[in-house]
Hints:
Chain A is mainly beta and 317 residues long. Chain A contains 2 helices and 28 strands. In chain A, the strands form 7 sheets. A 4-stranded antiparallel beta sheet of chain A has the order 1-2-3-4. The longest helix of chain B is centred in the middle third of the chain and has 86 residues, at 42-127. Chains A and B meet through strand 20 of A and helix 3 of B. Chain B: Residues 184-203 are annotated as: Disordered.
Amino acid sequence: MTVFSQSVSPCGKFLAAGNNYGQIAIFSLSAALSSEAKEESKKPMVTFHAHDGPVYSMVSTDRHLLSAGDGEVKGWLWAEILKKGCKELWRRQPPYRTSLEVPEINALLLIPKENSLILAGGDCQLHSMDLETGTFTRALRGHTDYIHCLALRERSPEVLSGGEDGAVRLWDLRTAKEVQTIEVYKHEECSRPHNGRWIGCLATDSDWMVCGGGPALTLWHLRSSTPTTVFPIRAPQKHVTFYQDLILSAGQGCYVNHWQLSGELKAQVPGSSPGLLSLSLNQQPAAPECKVLTAAGNSCRVDVFTNLGYRAFSLSF
Amino acid sequence: TGLSDHEVIRKRLLIDGDGAGDDRRINLLVKSFIKWCNSGSQEEGYSQYQRMLSTLSQCEFSMGKTLLVYDMNLREMENYEKIYKEIECSIAGAHEKIAECKKQILQAKRIRKNRQEYDALAKVIQHHPDRHETLKELEALGKELEHLSHIKESVEDKLELRRKQFHVLLSTIHELQQTLENDEKLSEVEDAQETIMEADPKP
C-alpha cells in the first residue's frame, strides 16, 4: 500500500489519509495521543472508498474535505465523515482538452482569499475552481509536461507550480499570467542530470522558495531568481515545507530531514516506511494538544512525531 | 455473629489502639474502687487507695500524651497545607515562565531564520564583484574606447589624404601618358605624310 496524501480536520483532532487503492481513512489524533490510548486507537475510526484511482491530494477547508486523484475532485463534509456517513457532497471535473483520457490530478491548493481551489496534474494546466459555485474560472497554461506540486505565495498573491518539465512557474492570479519562470535544471549548482529534471516538491515562504526532486533540494531567493543554498542530500525529495526556522523534507529513504536555512542538516529522524511521500503538520489552533508532525509514504503506516525529534508511534490503515 | 465481632474488635482497637492497656486499666480501676469500698482494714483500704491513685495518674499521663500527639498532628496538617499551597503557587509560576520561554524561543527562531536568510543572500552577493570595482573598470574601459576611436579617426584621415594624393598622382600620370601618346601619333602621321610626298613628286 502507498499513502499519498494527508489532511487535518478543521478542529485539529482528526487526520485523513488517502492511499493508492482510492480509500480514505480517518484517524482520531486525540484518541491516539491520549494517555489511555490502546492499539485500536491507532487504527482508523472509519475507512471509505473515495475514488476509483489513487487519492493523490487532499486539502481541508473549514468545513469540507476535498480529495482528488483520478481526474475528479470530490468534496466531503467533515461533520458527516466523523459520524461515519461517507457520501460525497459533490464531484467536479475540470474542463480537459481531450475527453479521451482523463488526466490525474496531482495537487490541490486552496486560495482562502478568493475561496477558490487550484487543481493541477496530468494535463499540464492549472485549473482554478470557485468553491462556492463549482465553476472553473481559469486555466493557466505554460507547463510543457505534467505538474507535480503547487504552493501559494500569500503576500503577492501568486501560485507556484512545479512539474516534470523541470520548471517552477509563478502565476499571478489576478492577471492569470505567468510572471516568473525558474528553470531549475539549467543551474549547475543544483542540477543532477542523472536524476532527471522533474520538480517533485515545492514550498514557499513569500520571499523564498525551496524545491527539489531530480535536481538537488535547493533554497531560492525568488525576487532575484538565485539559488542560495543547496542541501546536501542525494535522495530525491518528495515533500518539503517551511516550519519555524527550519525546512523539513522527506523523500526516498525513511528519514524526515530537518534543515537549517544555512544548509546544515540539523536532524535526520527515521520513520517506519522505506520511503516518504507526504508530511503534514497539524497547526490547527483549536487543538494544540494534537500538534504533531505526521509522515506517510510507501507503507500502510502513518508515523506520528509528537516532538519533532523522534517517532512516537504509528497509525496504520 | 461474625459481623458484630468485627465491630467489637474495631471499637476496642479504636479505644485502645496503642495497646498500652488503658482500657484494661479503667476496668481495673472500677474493680479496685469496688474492692476499696469493700475493704476491711485501714491498711488494706489505704494501700488500695494508693493503688487507685497511681492507676489514675497513669491514665491521666496517657491522656496527656494523646492530647499532645493530637495537637502535634493538627499543627503538622497546617504545615503541610501551607507547603502544598506554596508548591501550587510555584507550579503556576513555572507554567507561566514556560509559556514566556516558549514565546522567547519562537522569537529567537524567527531571528535565527532572518539571520540565515541574510547570510544566504550575502554569500551570493559576495560572489559578484564589488560595485566600485566594476564602475572603475567601466570608466577605464570607456576612456580606452575613446582613445582608440581617436586613433582610428586620425588613421582614417591620413588614409583619406594619401588616397587623394595618389589619385592626383595617378591622374597626372595618365594625362601625361595620353599627351605622350598623342604626340607620338601626331609625329607618326607627320612622318607618313613626308614619305608619301617624297615618293611621288608631282610636276
